[in-house]
Amino acid sequence: MTVLVITGTGTEVGKTVTTAAVAAVALRAGRSVAVLKPAQTGVRTDERGDADEVARLAGAVTTLELARYPEPLAPATAARRAGLPPVRPEEVAEAAAKLAVDHDLVLVEGAGGLLVRFDEAGGTLADAARLLDAPVLVVASAGLGTLNTTELTARELRGRGLGLAGLVIGSWPAEPDLASRCNLADLPVVAGAPLLGAVPAGTGGSDPAGFRAGAARWLAPRLGGTWEAEAFTAREAARRGPGEHAAAPAV
Fold first, then answer.
1. Residue 237: its H or E element
2. Bridge-partner residues for 198, per DSSP?
3. In Å, how far are 1, 52, 92, 100, 126 from 64, measured between CA atoms?
4. Which parts of the chain sit beneath pLDDT 70?
5. What is the per-residue burial (b if ≥16 Cβ within 10 Å, else e) of 141-153?
6. How far apart are CA 209 and CA 27, in angstroms?
7. What is the CA 24 to chain-centroid distance, rounded?
8. Choosing from 10, 18, 37, 109, which is the catalytic residue?
9. Strand 136-140 vs strand 164-172: parallel, antiparallel, or unpaired?
10. Catalytic: 98?
11. pLDDT tens for residues 140-158?
12. pLDDT per residue over 49-86, tens digit each?
């Protein structure tokens, strides 16, 4: 796997910190890594973007932004309002392919969800993934509502003939509620794909050294880490919050 496309089931689900964790594990294994952010929105030219944050947390990665728009909107809308050229899927695929020539791993981090529009023609990250023939890693939220958005994303990927590499929970709470704990078992079922990690909430605020040391513990072996879905799910399922009762035994 040379190119991995990373999308989310929506905004603020932990795509950037997950991208950084994947990059950190790859770097620690001696691989060269590039991070491509096709469209950065909601950030001024003098501010740090998502690719910069990945580099801060993960280490010596090559970073590339294709476009930056100041308003926190979908890329197509942000480009139109700023009077700037939009990013097109063909440009994303071309840039990723060029980076892949000199890097062992290229991570393409989308903006928002899979079908957020890059341009007025309706081009999306899914179109770029198709042009690259690259697998897609989906970052999902932990709690109530995630099953629907995750299943919709997985269905769209399969309907387009794209490979779903698996799921990562981008922000696993320190005190997960009942829905979050149940979702550990249900997410792989609705997506038809394995759960490949759970990144602890607040990890993005870690010091870089601690982040790099811990990243492998949050990701499954398929992503270069040591995290085990079955053990994690069993341990979290055994926890109970205030007022909760143990589940009735199966008969």
1. helix 229-237
2. 169
3. 19, 9, 11, 12, 19
4. 1, 241-251
5. bbbeebbebbbbb
6. 13
7. 14
8. 37
9. parallel
10. no
11. 999 999 999 999 999 999 9
12. 999 999 999 999 999 999 999 999 999 999 999 999 99
